Each structure stands twice: as C-alpha cells, then as structure tokens.
C-alpha cells in the first residue's frame, strides 16, 4: 500500500507535491515566527504563583512530573499510528461498523456532539490538513467488535489504552482546575466544581497531520482557534508544530519529551471573568517532510450550568456549543466568546 492511500483523497495531492519538492533543491524559507519557552509547572509541587502567572499572562503551560506512565503514552501513540495508517476507506468502514461512539474525522477539527465533522459555510478557508479519532470517554463500551480479526484486535487495544490514559488525564485535569480555582479565590462547593468541570464530558482526540507541500501555507495543520473547553491537555510527538499567539506575535512551542501541554479554553476565560485567557493557537509544521501525531484531552462544564461574568451575558455551555456550531456551519469559522459580550447580538 502506498503511504498516501492511508490519507483522505483531498490530502493526497498535497502530500505527493511535498514528496517531489523534498527531492529538489529548495531555497531557504523565511520563517516569521520564533521559538518560545512557555511556563513550566511541576505537578508534584504546584507553585500557585507560577500557575497564576501562566494562566493570566499565557493561557498555556508545560506540565512535568505529571504521573502518566511513559510506557502507556508510548503504547497509545504506537497503536494510534497503526490504526491511522490503515487505508482511508478501511478507517471509514471500521469506525462506522463498530458498536462504539468512537469516530473517525478528517479535514476539520470542528465536530458535532456525535463526533461527525461539521459542514462548514462557504466562507470557510481551506480544509485543515488533519485527521483523527474522536473518543468520548464516558461512552466507551466494554469492548469493541468488527468483522476483521486483526483490526478488531488493534481497535480493542486502542480502546483499552485510551481508557487507561483517560483515567490519568482526568485526574490531572480535576487537580489543576481545583488549583486554578484557588488562585482565583473561587470558593466552590463539590457540586459547583462538577458544574464548572464535569468529568463525564471529557473526550480525547487523536490527531495525525500528514507530510505536505511547503506551498500549502495556512492550509497546513490546524487553523487559528481557541478551544471551547475549560482545560485542554496535549501530548505531542517530537515533530513540533504547535504555535501560540503571544503579544500579537506567533511563536513556536518546542516539544519537550515526557511532558504535557496544558492550555486554558474559552470556558475558563469566562469562569475567571477574563482574568485568565483562552490562548489562540494553531498547528503549522516547520518540517513538511514528516507527519505529526498528538493526543488531546478536552473537558467542559455541565451542559446546563449557567456561567455568569461581568464581561458576558449569562450562558450555558449548551448555548455556547450551539452558537459555535451555527457559526461554523454558516460563516465557516468559530466566533466564540465574542458572541456573548453585552454589545454583540447572538446569531441564533
């Protein structure tokens, strides 16, 4: 099987162009963005001062000593890459056939609650060069089944590993949220904590970004966005490609082995009354000749929890999610929290 057969047909021309250009002599490309070291938080001894600064000034930080077993992360990456390397048509059939809420997506990170890609409006930019699996952790079945024994075995191992990884990463998210709430002096009851960060909403997305032609520009990777989550926790490989907006400039975040990257989402920005920020980010690979693999965990508030802020109209996460999906489908892009400022009329 040709390597390109594992990718969606829309990706194959770009990949092939990239392979041809890689064999030719290419003039150096002027890179406008720069490397940056984001704040580092030690999960074993959380420093509230460093955590406050990271949330307030950056909206993103690196987590070390997180306690997730390194062999587990290595195994999860290996089995994920194996499944993603199946022929494109096989992946579609496999995830459509199994009795599972897990789904396969490509061309956009904008999915509905069922894990299906949203149809984007006519004003949308080119498709993102990304594909992956969407896994809602609370809905994972006890086992997965499909007709092909070999693929069933791989998919079952993937389910087992992602379930275990999910337990570790959920523990981290809950602990971080409690620590962040303390830095904001939010005195929350157990019920309020689960309203703002509900473990059962947690989902994992496994991403693969193909090698591609350097002329593809902004179509590479993932477009500029903020996460809708409370907290997102990323495990990336050594390829790199994550970029963040800081002081109106784009900076590359260098990958560091055995660490996780935590970024705050829109819900945390609203909960903090804009004291903390939901960081703008994108994926734009510097090395066009290699693929990139990452695993990201997202967690959200209780759907009917009313989030009140002096900067926004009161809203529930359910209303926020519906508005984001309406904007993506009609305008081709997410508007996000700006839809809920007092001066902004809602689109819905």
From TrEMBL:
Pfam families: 2OG-FeII_Oxy, DIOX_N. Residues 199-301 form the Fe2OG dioxygenase domain. Keywords: Iron, Metal-binding, Oxidoreductase. InterPro entries: DIOX_N (IPR026992), IPNS-like_FE2OG_OXY (IPR044861), IPNS-like_sf (IPR027443), Iron_ascorbate_oxido_reductase (IPR050231), Oxoglu/Fe-dep_dioxygenase_dom (IPR005123). GO terms for molecular function: metal ion binding; oxidoreductase activity. SUPFAM superfamilies: Clavaminate synthase-like. Gene3D superfamilies: B-lactam Antibiotic, Isopenicillin N Synthase, Chain. PROSITE patterns: FE2OG_OXY. The keyword Cell membrane does not apply. The keyword Nucleus does not apply. Belongs to the iron/ascorbate-dependent oxidoreductase family. This is Fe2OG dioxygenase domain-containing protein. It comes from Brassica campestris. The lineage of its organism: Eukaryota, Viridiplantae, Streptophyta, Embryophyta, Tracheophyta.
